[in-house]
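INPUT
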Amino acid sequence: MVAIGIVLLGVPVWSVTQPGEAPPVLQVSPAVDTVMDIDLIIESSVPCRVEIKNADVSIVSTQLESAPSEATVPIPKHGADLVIRAIANQPGQRLAVRVRAGHDGSQLAEASFWGDGEVAGVLMVADPTEAR
Amino acid sequence: MKHPVFVAIFCVVGLCSVFAEGGAVGSEKLVVASLSTVLSDFARQVGGERVEVVEVVKAGDDPHLFEPGPGDVKTISKAKIVLANGLGFEGYLDKLKAGVGKGPVFVIAGDAVKPLMMAHDHEHHDHDHDHGDGADPHWWHSVSNAKLAVREVRDAFIKADPAGAATYQANTQTYLRALEELEQACKLEVAKLPKSQRVLVTSHDALGYFANDHGFTVLAVQGVSTSDQPSSKKIKDLIDKIKALGVKAIFAENIENPKVLEELTRETGAVMGGVLYADGLGEGQEGTYEGMVRHNVTTIVRALK
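OUTPUT
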């Protein structure tokens, strides 16, 4: 009995005093009901490199040719301001980029941006319950 | 009439100076007196070399507490145009108009902008409504309103000085392009902040137009004027809200004593996010409208990110 007691007492002492890995930290993920998936359709007039950021974090980075590009990305359910930046493959080339955002088959937002060689703009995606 | 003595002084000084100088401008330039540092900058941008801008209210003055003295009335009465914010910002405006007589033309920028009605159109802000149901007079914190005000200034200059019309038109066109770029730059900068972090805690409630344009909620210690004093209950409510929303930073203003805000940081754990220009321009880089707006936006985003 004494031996069992020593072993039982020893386990927590051992685990606390062991060097190496820190105790696991509770990872807080965004609750499922605070995030929604939106479908993005991105088109451009000429081949270009497109990057889309949400809250300064890159969520899409793609090379666009003639066909539109599609992506599904998570954003906060209450909406997000997406920053669109595109750079034409050929410097200085007149460039137009259109981005559409949809959710559950409904279009939430659409914006077009024009520029010479590069474009930058913000696509404001509203909370779908407010947009409808 | 609230201040009959002041009105009498305004009238006497104003009339004396009009009679003494015949209302003449005194130089070949179009003399523009400005009651706002923001409008002073617009006048310089639109007028260029053709105008002489006399800044009655200067950078660092608290325009909410400013009252023109006899010297100011004399200066204003010599101008051909007087620029004012309007929407109740200059509480002395009617007295001043009476004091300077029919000499200068008053251009009220607030009459040209899209006003934000505090009690009705401001649903997603957290105003206390202790300022009544009027329009928020800090219209310049929306760049789209600034563009409307610049056009108003241009039209007034052309009317007063038709010979300079081409210059005023060209200068305005150039400046409006710069304001378009500024507006776009603000959107790109604010987009770095998640919407859930767009809570603006400031000394007084002056950034409603900015908040409305960019989806912020404003929590202000004072009301719409720097002369409003917060109750202890309001401070307590504010502390509770800051804690509940997990606000990272709160902002002082260039002309305000940050003592109450420092107390808030101690109570809430939020940090001081920097100094904002709420009631007008500053000096140096913040001495222009563009500089002031860029400073405010980058300060806010950097602190709340």
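end of record. The two ends of chain B are 50 Å apart (CA to CA).
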